[in-house]
Design brief:
292 residues, disordered C terminus, mainly alpha, disordered N terminus, 75% helix, 12 helices
């Protein structure tokens, strides 16, 4: 009797799964349920500067300078200590960031496509009518991306524990990117969707490479990551330049402000120069195959 009951439950469950996956009506039902359950928290989220958690300027300032101080103290503490391998932490950390980056990229691109189809390219590069804030969930993804920058500080702590060298480029990149994400949120900078999606796309592959390297696998395309990062910064600067064209050329009241865009120009321009210098020093040397 008990076996028959288990079989019945199993068959009914299998039947329901087959109905959802195979039949057209089942697929439509599943899609509507998933769409409603997954999108509700995104739609209900409203970013308010100074109100939303960690959005006040004191938080990024204290956390970023705290990051520099903690790295300095930890590096000095580990000088005469045996190194830690942290194998499983590295596996989980890199796998999580690769997957999380993919989710954030898809979330941003989905909303960017919606804006382009309904309001045109102006809503993506200038957004005078604030459609990004009122019509999409982009600010949810901007906020999640901002928070992820603080989690990425773990990259540097792992290097400290493993007695690995920490370059100026590495620390500056982690330190200033968190500030840039906060400035984008605070000002409502219109083209930040492109900066985030491009950076996230690079991170999908970068953290996958770190994961594969940790597990002992060789990735043949690892030497192209720095080249892709350089291209990323060039495209970022093109997107930022487009905002200036709308603001100065067409006299549009674009989302964001000149101070925020100038800061973005400085950060992305400095990244471009630093990564070009890193590429020249690393890959112009025979056998060089490092990655920041």
């Amino acid at each position: 009797m008990e076996l028959r009951r288990v079989k019945k439950r199993y068959l009914s469950g299998a039947g329901l799964l087959a109905y959802l996956l195979v039949s057209k009506r089942g697929q439509e039902h599943l899609e509507s349920v998933l769409s409603e359950s997954l999108s509700r928290p995104f739609r209900e989220f409203e970013y308010q500067s100074g109100v939303t958690a960690l959005s006040a300027w004191q938080w990024p300032v204290s956390m970023c300078f705290g990051y520099l101080l903690s790295v300095y103290l930890l590096k000095n503490y580990m000088k005469d200590k045996p190194k830690w391998d942290l194998y499983w932490l590295r596996v989980v950390h890199n796998a999580f960031l690769s997957f999380a980056s993919l989710v954030m990229v898809l979330g941003v691109l989905k909303e960017a496509v919606y804006l382009y189809q309904n309001y045109g390219i102006e809503s993506l590069l200038c957004d005078e009518q604030k459609k990004q804030y009122t019509e999409t969930t982009l600010f949810f993804w901007y906020y999640v991306f901002f928070l992820s920058k603080f989690y990425e500080f773990i990259d540097t702590y792992i290097l400290c524990f493993r007695h690995r060298p920490i370059t100026f480029l590495h620390c500056f990149h982690h330190f200033i990117t968190a500030f840039l994400c906060w400035v984008g949120l605070y000002s409502g900078m219109a083209p930040q969707w492109s900066v985030i999606s491009l950076n996230g796309a690079i991170h999908v592959f970068m953290y996958y490479y770190f994961l594969a390297s940790t597990m002992g696998f060789d990735v043949w395309w690892k030497k192209y990551l720095t080249s892709a990062q350089i291209v990323q910064f060039c495209l970022d600067l093109v997107a930022i330049a487009s905002w200036w064209v709308y603001y100065l050329g067409f006299k549009k009241q674009c989302s964001g402000n000149p101070a925020a865009l100038l800061f973005a120009n400085f950060v992305l321009g400095s990244f471009l120069l630093l990564f070009i210098n890193f590429y020249r020093k690393t890959y112009n040397q025979k056998g060089g195959d490092k990655q920041e």
